[in-house]
User: Fold this.
Amino acid sequence: MAAGAAVRAWMLVLCLWGAVTGDQNITARIGKPLVLNCKGAPKKPPQQLEWKLNTGRTEAWKVLSPQGDPWDSVARVLPNGSLLLPAVGIQDEGTFRCRATSRSGKETKSNYRVRVYQIPGKPEIVDPASELMAGVPNKVGTCVSEGGYPAGTLSWHLDGKTLTPDGKGVSVKEETKRHPETGLFTLHSELMVTPTRGGALHPTFSCSFTPGLPRRRALHTAPIQLRVWSEHRGGEGPSVGEHMSEYTVPLEEVQLVVEPEGGAVALGGTVTLTCEAPAQPPPQIHWIKDGRPLPLPPGPVLLLPEVGPEDQGTYSCVATHPSHGPQESGAVSISLIETGKEGTTAGSVEGPGLETLALSLGILGGLGTVALLIGVIMWHRRRQRRGQERKVPENQEEEEEERAELNQPEEPEAAESSTGGP
Ligand SMILES: *[C@@H]1O[C@H](CO)[C@@H](O)[C@H](O)[C@H]1NC(C)=O
Ligand SMILES: *[C@@H]1O[C@H](CO)[C@@H](O)[C@H](O)[C@H]1NC(C)=O
Assistant:
């Protein structure tokens, strides 16, 4: 009959579909209960179903049925046909299969690949360096992650960017240990770096743990900020961080950095002078112009906005530290860039002309900026409107994808919470 043919066709489709979908990947947290559903099984006995599992605990396939005895405390078939593992362990990783026949005689197979995981404690940086020496290899610290499964990996970051060991400036020594009883992993990663002279003075290091299973979140250590020192001039083999008192800062350690480089600036420009004096705690910085102290509150940065002729001169800074005494930086000179003869001889004659030119240029510039702003705002609005039109379907798709993704690994976890124990 036609109806019978349709049913048979449907069964064929379902069988093919089952063959195509293959194993469903399940991740379960160690120590938690796991429930695997036997698809297509009647909700209540009598049922025709059979569970088969091949895991670290079985030699070959182990068969469990609703009528049979539970397998010690490892696994048992629930009244609704699902398989319960009261507390998942590393040995339960493997393949789980169920074959069920419905009341109408339809056979359904469920295939699961179970992988287990354990989230380690928050990684930590142990034995962190207190400071680093430029030009030589320094141990920054050892990152430790304890109690994870599967092993996962540790990686280091400098100022937020991942550090790739290159065997030269950056090297990493790794060690993976496994607890003899629990089988959980402890990872160690020791970082050595050779800071370049003239590089960043306050690099920030952190370490993160990346789980060995996909879709699990990474864990991060608290960052550590270190101070980079340049080497002693005499090079008498300083021992990093052992004797702070040995770090009397040589004179050239107090450095004056000028921006723009060279100290030449156009009239009305801005000059920034930064006094770099490596010491802990930070020393007091005073400023000197043409040999005379500037009457300013102490601070490591001297900003000269709208530079005029009166700002030209020779600048230096003095770092005063209680244990080191005052140390002066080298001097830099600030000068105005001469924009041709008119600039320097700008007197009563040329002045007004230049001022008018500057004024009209200023107005033109202002108008241009306003036009540009309006343009940007209009463009932004149009984009927003178009974005809203497009957003709705996009979001839906994303959500659906996410749900589809979550379905597989999260299914057992959702089931876990409903069992609540053996
Ligand atoms: C399950 O994981 C295996 C590798 O472990 C992969 O090849 C397979 O595509 C995954 N199956 C699904 C349905 O995600
Ligand atoms: C079977 O029962 C368990 C525990 O009561 C439950 O977690 C699971 O979702 C049930 N399975 C089905 C297919 O209803």
The two ends are 49 Å apart (CA to CA). Helices lie at 2-21, 340-345, 350-419.
